[in-house]
Queue: 2 jobs
Job 1
Amino acid sequence: MTDSYRKAREIIDKSGSFVLTTHVAPDGDAIGSVMAFGKYLMAKGKKVEIINHSPTPFNLKFLDPENLIRVFQDDPGHCSQLIMNCDAVAVLDTNEYHRTRSMETVIRESPALKICIDHHTGIKEEMFDAVVSETECAATCEILYDFICSDNDSYITKEIASALYVGIMTDTGSFRHPRTDSRVFRICAELLDKGADPVFLYDEICNRVSKEMMQLQAAFLSGLEFHQNGTIVLGTVLQSDFRKYGLSIDHIEGFTSLLMSIEGIKVGVMFVELRDNIKLSFRSKGNIPANEMAIHFGGGGHFNAGGANVNGANVDELKPKVLDAVIKYMNKV
Ligand SMILES: [Mn+2]
């Protein structure tokens, strides 16, 4: 067992009650992680609460049929008590407390031991009592698979296998993003043997496009802007688009992949206008650092995929600044 596993294991062994959480705007890896790890801890006889800042996206709700996941803002008082009084808080699929948004202050103030299990870069180990950080992993669910198996692989029930499979499938973009390696397929093969159904799980998550979602996508595609001989593409979704189709940020999953599917594109940037800020998503190919572009705007991420939130800007003003930065980082390589 590695040292990082041992520390996390020690905390698990000596703790009776846990609060699990993940990042704002949770994706399949985030929800898969809290559900899989939660069910594992429950099977070990632990008391587990899962509390997130954001509601679970509609297409991931099936992973939580018992409605175990609480939304912090639904009952901040009670949720704060749970966080303050538990033995350990586990932060999954992010290594930054501020990505838990409304929960950040109370998590920091809680005397509970803090565990972080994550695959993003930039972790500050001193912020946690135990860290399992494997940045070469395609998904936090991939780390969790190893971690649970290092205890006993009989903990991987069909339910846990399905949650882990969802995390790996979604974070690899259905097995096509760079960190899709043979290990990912070996783990997924094990998960199928444990009962995960790849046809059912893909169908639940990906084949859920409503008419309005398709129309928003059409509007998004018709507004794409190309620069630098078609190597850069910028895509935009405004609040007015969301309103027009009655949709939200939950419904634009996959738009960045569309940008990167265009022949010749090296960098794709999404501008999503939220109520109080603009969410930027950077995607790049090869040795162009999307994360540095994201860091430039106060965010972070993986080498080929980064994001940032910019406050107090409007999209039209922000675009030329982003384009300048993208060209600068493209020319540096
Ligand atoms: Mn992830």
Note: The first helix runs from residue 3 to 14.
Job 2
Amino acid sequence: MAKDKREHLMLVCADCGSVNYHTSRSKTTQKLDLKKFCIKERKHTAHKEKKRK
Ligand SMILES: [Zn+2]
């Protein structure tokens, strides 16, 4: 099994709760810019990070 040092994250729209992005990052990386385009609402909204297994 390969060692995975990266965190896998989902970015969930804080407004409507839809999962718009899947991303990964190194654990040492600073917080992502969470202002993202929500596909459902077709506008930029705040997104929350949610961990994925
Ligand atoms: Zn949304």
Note: The beta strands are 6-13, 19-26, 35-38, 43-51.
